[in-house]
Amino acid sequence: MTLIAIAPCRAMSDYHEAVKRTGGECVDLDMERDKPADVIRRSHGLMLTGGGDVDPSLYGEAPHATFHASEAGRDAYEVALIKAAMEAKLPIFAICRGMQVLNVALGGTLLQDIPSMVNGAAEHATPATDPRFTIAHEVWVAKGTRLASMMAEKLEGETCQVNSRHHQAIKTVAPGWEVSGTAPDGVIEAIEQPDDVFRVAVQWHPENFWRTGEFRPMFEAFVEAAQTVKK
């Protein structure tokens, strides 16, 4: 059994489907019950999910006027999970807010509001009334990256079409990580750690496409990496 620990968020069902359909067993975490060290000790992979904004005090800034806090205690809990998973060399797959908190936990910073801080910004926050798999823009995938390798059969040339529900993004990438995908406006859409352990983060929501399979190779690669972890 390959146990994938999934950080808590308000909408879990698509994460569950994407993981289960590629061979993983989902373990939903409770911040009060599940201590980060214990979670990492018994899990084979860590998935970080979407949600509200990361507290900017964690990267030395005051909140922008558009700041929308996540659930109380979530930042500290996920930072502890990330650090424990990194130390244990566990595979990590981070999505949307998950990418942002991962980057901050490891020493990076965030762009607090794309619409007011990026000239000519693309549409990164589609209306809440739209289907969750609504395409917002394309992502340019960097050659030679793990992302490019995973998505090789799904790319249109060097691009893929993605959905989008965020107003923040990475500004300074955490040390030891590299950019593997960008939007046409220059916003960072994917990062990864270039070593043997699966560590990939994306800004869009690939889990929303579990029915149609556009991003299934990402979940397959993550679960396959988790299957190699010995417990």
Write out key terms for the chains shown.
single chain, 231 residues, alpha/beta, Rossmann fold, nine-stranded mixed beta sheet, two-stranded antiparallel sheet, 7 helices, globular
Structure description:
The chain is an alpha/beta fold and 231 residues long. It has one domain: Class I glutamine amidotransferase (GATase) domain (Rossmann fold), CATH 3.40.50. It is 26% helix and 19% strand. The protein has seven helices and eleven strands. The strands form two sheets. The chain has a nine-stranded mixed beta sheet, with helices on both faces. The protein has a two-stranded antiparallel sheet with strand order 5-8. Helix 2 crosses helix 3 and helix 3 crosses helix 4. The chain is globular, with a radius of gyration of 16 Å. The mean pLDDT is 97.
At a glance:
Helices cover 26% and strands 19% of the residues. The protein is α/β, with parallel strands linked by helices and 231 residues long. It has one domain (3-227): Class I glutamine amidotransferase (GATase) domain (Rossmann fold, 3-Layer(aba) Sandwich), CATH 3.40.50.
User: Which quaternary structure do these chains form?
Assistant: single chain
CATH superfamily: Class I glutamine amidotransferase (GATase) domain
CATH class: Alpha Beta
Tell how many strands the DSSP assignment holds.
11
- SSE order, as H and E? EHEHEHEHEHEHEEEEEH
How would you write the strand order of the largest sheet? 2-1-3-4-11-10-9-6-7
Radius of gyration, CA atoms, in whole angstroms: 16 Å
Low-pLDDT windows of residues: none
Number of helices: 7
Taken from the alpha-carbon principal axes, the silhouette is globular
